[in-house]
Amino acid sequence: MGVSGPAEGATEEDRRDLIVAVARELAEVEGWTGVSPRRLAERAEVDVGDLYRHFADQEALLAAVAVCAFADLAADLAEAHAEATGGPERVWPAVAGAYLDFAYANPEVYDAMLALTPDLALGVDGVPAAPRGVFAELRAALTPLAEGRDPDTLVEVGWSLLHGMVMLTRGGRLRPEAQEERESMIGERLFRWPCPQAAEADGNRLGASRDMP
């Protein structure tokens, strides 16, 4: 179902939000190359002048779409966190799964978020709250697994793993039959280090080596 045009009496903010929503929908159907000013104005049922009044160029539109999508992703991650059961250590698998679901369901919007808007990098001053909100949700999920490691660095590693898997999977570079195993490994095992069993095994090996003549 398409996004309807502006209602009578719509504010400028309403029109801006409408343009962003239609751009997201159009991009997912036709790719960003299909989001031309004329096509976007036609689909949003606004004048081309309305587009340029709110967005000076394609980069400004992409940034607006990305910020909106970051807010949606943060909300999805927060919901997954709230609904996770089985203790704090079960939050990360739920949140990681929600991240992957969003990325695979919205590939063009995901590109706007993480490939086409370099100014939204977390290390840059003045980054909007929405991208930082995604980082915060990932941090909240991974902190129970930190075990003395820096949580922020752990989030950067976790986010990198999720993003890398998304992009390599979309590019057809990974074995399809191993997709479930990869997701399980990231969600269930990679960040449980050092796990008690491994620590005990390492201790036993170290003790045995010390006993050797």
From TrEMBL:
Q: Does the keyword Ribosomal protein apply?
A: no
Question: Taking every annotated instance into account, which residue ranges of this chain make up the domain HTH tetR-type?
Answer: 13-73
Q: What residues are annotated to bind DNA?
A: 36-55
Lineage top rank: taxon: Bacteria
Q: Which InterPro entries match?
A: Homeodomain-like_sf, HTH-type_TetR-like_transc_reg, HTH_TetR, MT1864/Rv1816-like_C, Tet_transcr_reg_TetR-rel_C_sf
Gene Ontology molecular functions: DNA-binding transcription factor activity; transcription cis-regulatory region binding
- Keywords per UniProt: DNA-binding, Transcription, Transcription regulation
Gene3D superfamilies hit by this protein? Tetracycline Repressor, domain 2
Q: What is this protein called?
A: Transcriptional regulator, TetR family
Biological source species: Micromonospora coriariae
